[in-house]
Amino acid sequence: MFRIGILIILILLPLQLNAHSPLEFSIPKNGALIDSAPNELVLSFKSPAKLIKVKVAEKQSAEKSSFLKKFLGTKQNNEYILHKDISKELNLSHILTLPELPPGKFIITWRAMGEDGHVLKGNISFEIRGN
Questions:
Q1: pLDDT above 90 (res 74)
Q2: CA-to-CA distance for 42 and 18, rounded, in angstroms?
Q3: Which residues share a beta bridge with 43?
Q4: Which residue of 6, 28, 49, 91 pairs with 112 in a disulfide if CB–CB is 3.0 to 4.6 A?
Q5: Residue 119 pairs with which residues in a beta bridge?
């Protein structure tokens, strides 16, 4: 009986994983090193999803952030939450206008909901070299 239960789980688990809608690609790409700040963010999913929250924050280097600042939770990085461009509709792709970003390292944190109701989340890191 135990073996049958394990077999059923092993068969159904891949089907459950396929029900989610992972990110297919983004612009800027994760890990990208770009010369100038992008004007927009593109998030493209494998199946329709609706965005819940997207934020852009400057990454702090380890030398900029002391133990005391980490302990006290002091924020010194700029953080932008993109509210107005988020469509609450299910779409394969979402295009959001980004604020004017200075040269530096950034991380985009996103959260979405697939058409099956599962919450998806991820991060995209990129660096702007500047001129």
A1: no
A2: 22
A3: 26, 94
A4: 49
A5: 113
